[in-house]
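STRUCTURE REQUEST FORM
Protein name: histidine kinase
Source organism: Paenibacillus albidus
Requested output: structure tokens
Priority: standard
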Amino acid sequence: MILLLPTLMVGIWEIVRHQFLMPYLSMDMGNYLTPVLVFTVSIVLLLPLFSMMERGQRELEQERAAKHAMEAREGLARELHDGIAQSLFLLSVKIDRLEQNRRNNEVSEDSVQQIAKTVHEVNHYVRQAIASLKVPASGPINLTLEQSVRGQLAQIAGEVMIDASLDWGLPDESLMPLEQAELLSCIREAMINVRKHTRATEVSISGQGSREHWRVTVRDNGGGFRHDPFTVSGSYGLQIMKERAASMGWNLRVSSVDEGTLVEIVKGGL
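Status: completed
Returned output:
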């Protein structure tokens, strides 16, 4: 209607003017009246139509925003169900069993460690969910892998108050989206462990290689360690990192080097 009304109005006006009004209106007067009629029709008829179109556009945008919000809530619900809710259910079962063992005077150190490990996993899932919610779902620019890693590292470094440097040479196609998420989780856990256990003030992250063979390292300036960190009681973060790496087919190595600790995540034997 917005397109057709001015056309029909001008066409009808020209027919009426030439067929019936020529004896009463001069050619110049008719030419002057034509834009006046177009303006009048625009004000009376077209502006309400434009308002209707804008109102429909606003309603469409509101529905789209509501749909995006619902999808975000569903995604968060899946995250909570897959990680936090299941871990909390497992934790409740272990606590009930521990309570029964306490009544029977059969409380073991292993039961307490299992509960502590589950609590650590819940804490890990919560941190991951919060970190995921802080990342914009979309934007005008698609971030490269290096930019994503650098942004995550800046956020983690700010949280744990560590100076972080990055030397990243892995191309974008080297890691699938799931691999990128798991690798970032491992790097996050490594940096948190650096701050928690080594009291280091600086950490450097490096990533080099190709799709088939690559190597990512996290190195700090702490005091290192004397014993196998995987055998230390309460080292649940390292155990989770090891399980994550194993599930993706990677190798995780933790070694004590000069004036610090070196965490290596390797694919393909590099």
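Reviewer notes: The CA atoms of residues 145 and 258 lie 30 Å apart. The radius of gyration is 33 Å.
Form closed.
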